[in-house]
Write a structure and sequence with these properties.
heterodimer; A: about 375 residues; two-stranded antiparallel ribbon; 16 helices; about 10% strand; disordered N terminus; B: about 70 residues; alpha+beta; three-stranded mixed sheet
Chain lengths: ~375, ~70
């Protein structure tokens, strides 16, 4: 179950960090269990996607997965939303409407933002979970429901129980298999892989090649705290795909909030790149440019030209320092002197040579 | 009070990134409650950099100095 999810569209749960490996291990262990799962994690940590994965790994995977956020509805509407209503149950209830529990029958119901359910509603929810039956609003029938519950919470429910904001009995009913999703800032080592993944996704969606990402952008992503977690990182990548037009993702394409609000020390500047080292150019020597293709070539003359070219290069790079030049050519200092004389290059030991001339034989 | 030092302190938060990308941001002048900056190097030719940093840095300047008025990019 987990292997395809790592590379597939569900890859919001991408991660090689120890924290995420623990999550994958949990998913593997619970396998086909039918027990209630309580997923706790900050906004944007991937609670719903994780719930989907749990559903897909269960024996109910061919039945509906219904997700509902309990934060989206007013207190009175939650009950109707979850349990449905009969026509005439309240003003505006013009026809029968099944609730989410009935819609998820045989499958999985993901009750997200369970921490936002008011206390009065918690009692009703507890009764449904215990009896496995619902009654529609305004209805008289008791309808049995076969639903596997996964609850999602932004807050620590145990803490809410201690504060009297969440019913203890409902908490124990939900907290059968607890799973905590780590905030992104506690698994920053996963940021680069997530960034690559989403950058690729959004550039491909735009129909463009995936450009390289500059070091500054990588640094900014690593330093930022991501209070909105993976969802925020995904949105930042989508924004980059919209902004970037220059072939490389640079810092200019990154939202200023990400750039300006990082943790830890600012990125160190890279050491100045070493000056490019001039290497001898020998193409002309190897591939003679004679216009007559089969004209004879004197090997001895050619070899002397090659030698003169290389010695000239070594002297220039060493600024006329013959000991250094000999080292560059991996010959003895005395041998170099002999060869300089033989090639008539004595003048080349002067550093004031025309630097524009390549040391190739074409120029000699 | 908008001062060169306070503006520079904000610019210092973005400068390392811009330098990593082969660019830079220079404070040209502080005039009243406004400041003018110049983008140089690779960032100078990047329209996204102008917009992002212009909007983002201006917001950050105002966060530090509520009286800050406008950031001009030259």
């Amino acid at each position: 179950m987990m292997a395809p999810s790592l590379a597939g569209p569900q890859s919001v749960v991408i991660g090689r960090s120890a924290r995420m490996r623990a999550v994958f291990e949990f998913l593997r262990v619970i396998g086909t269990s039918e027990s209630t799962v309580l997923i706790t994690g900050e906004s944007g940590t991937g609670k719903e996607i994780t719930a989907t994965l749990i559903h897909q790994g269960s024996r109910r995977s061919h039945r509906p997965f219904v997700a509902v956020s309990c934060a989206l509805f007013s207190e009175t509407l939650i009950e109707s939303e979850l349990f449905g209503h009969e026509r005439g149950a309240f003003t505006g209830a013009i026809k029968d409407r099944p609730g989410r529990f009935e819609m998820a029958d045989g499958g999985t119901l993901f009750l997200d933002d369970i921490d936002d359910v008011p206390l009065s509603m918690q009692v009703k929810l507890l009764r449904v979970l215990q009896n496995r039956t619902i009654e529609r609003l305004g209805g008289t029938r008791t309808v049995p429901v076969n639903v596997r519950i996964i609850a999602g919470s932004k807050k620590d429910l145990q803490q809410m129980v201690a504060e009297g904001k969440f019913r203890e009995d409902l908490f124990y009913r939900l907290n059968v298999l607890p799973l905590a999703l780590p905030p992104l800032r506690e698994r920053r080592e996963d940021v680069p892989a997530l960034m690559d993944h989403f950058i690729e996704r959004y550039f491909r969606r735009r129909g463009d090649d995936v450009p390289p990402i500059s070091d500054a952008v990588k640094q900014a992503f690593l330093r930022y705290r991501w209070p909105g977690n993976v969802r925020e990182l995904e949105n930042a990548c989508e924004r980059i795909a919209q902004m970037c037009t220059c072939g490389t993702v640079g810092i200019g394409c990154v939202a200023a909030s990400v750039v300006l609000h990082g943790d830890g020390p600012l990125p160190a500047l890279p050491a100045a790149p070493p000056a490019p080292v001039e290497r001898p150019v020998l193409e002309a020597a190897v591939a003679p440019t004679s216009v007559v293709a089969d004209a004879p070539i004197s090997l001895d003359d050619r070899m002397r030209e090659v030698e003169a070219g290389l010695i000239g290069w070594a002297l220039r790079v060493s600024h006329g320092n013959k000991s250094r030049a000999a080292e560059l050519l991996q010959i003895k200092r005395s041998t170099l002197g002999d060869r300089i004389n033989r090639c008539g290059l004595g003048h080349a030991a002067s550093p004031e040579r025309d630097e524009r001339r390549p040391p190739s034989l074409a120029s000699t | 009070m908008v001062t060169t030092e306070r503006v520079e302190a904000v610019l210092a938060r973005v400068r390392p990134y811009m330098q990593l990308d082969g660019g830079d941001i220079e404070l040209v002048e502080v005039e009243g409650n406004s400041a003018a900056v110049r983008l140089t190097g690779r960032c100078a030719g990047c329209p996204s950099a102008h917009m992002t940093l212009y909007l983002g840095v201006e917001a950050a300047l105002r966060e530090q100095m509520p009286e800050f008025e406008a950031l001009k990019v030259r």
